Amino acid sequence: MPRRFAELLFTPAVRAAQARYGGRADRLLTAADPQDSLGPDEAAFLQARDGFHLATVGETGWPYVQFRGGPPGFLRVLDDRTIAWADFRGNRQYVSTGNLDGAGDARVAIIAMDQAVPQRMKLLGTARIVVADADPDLAARVAVPGYRAVVERIVLVTVAAFDWNCPQHITRRYTASEVQDAVAPLVAQVERLQDENARLRAAVTPAATP
Known about the structure:
alpha+beta; 3 domains
C-alpha cells in the first residue's frame, strides 16, 4: 500500500527527478501505513505547536506561504481527519483567506516544526473558512482562553495525507519559555548559593566595635 503522501506528490516529473538524482522514494511507495489519518502522536505534536507555515495557491497559480502563530494549543485536532485553528486578526491583507475563500484552490500544505527536538511534520489537506459568528460551537472549540486576540474566522482542514520529515538540517532553536524552563533549576541553585554565602559571610564578619 503506497503512502498517501507519495501518491499525491510523486508525480511523473517528481519520479523522473528522483531517478535522475538518486532519490529514495521506495519506502514511501511501499509503506504499510498510508498516513492519511492522524493518530495520538500526530495529534499531540500538532496541538503542542505555537506556530506553523501554511501554503495556499491563488487563482493566478502563484503559491503563498504564511506563518500562522498563537499560544501553544491554538492548533486543534478535532478528529483523526480534521484540524482547525482560530484565525486571529493580523495585517488584514487576507491573502491566504482570499485564496481559500474565493476563487482559488482549497488545497493547502502545512509544515509544523519542533525546533528544540528537532522534529517536523508535513501535512496536505483541503481547507474551508468558517466565519466565527456563524458557528458559535466551533468557535468555542478553537477558542484560546486568556489570549487577547480577535478571532475573525475558523479554518478547518480535512487531512489528505501527512509525513514525518527528516530533521537532519533543522537548526535547533528554543522559545523564551523553553529557555526559562531549562535554566530554572540553575537559577534556583544560584539563589540558594547566594543565600548561603550571605549567611556564611555574616557569621564570620566580626561585630563592629562601639
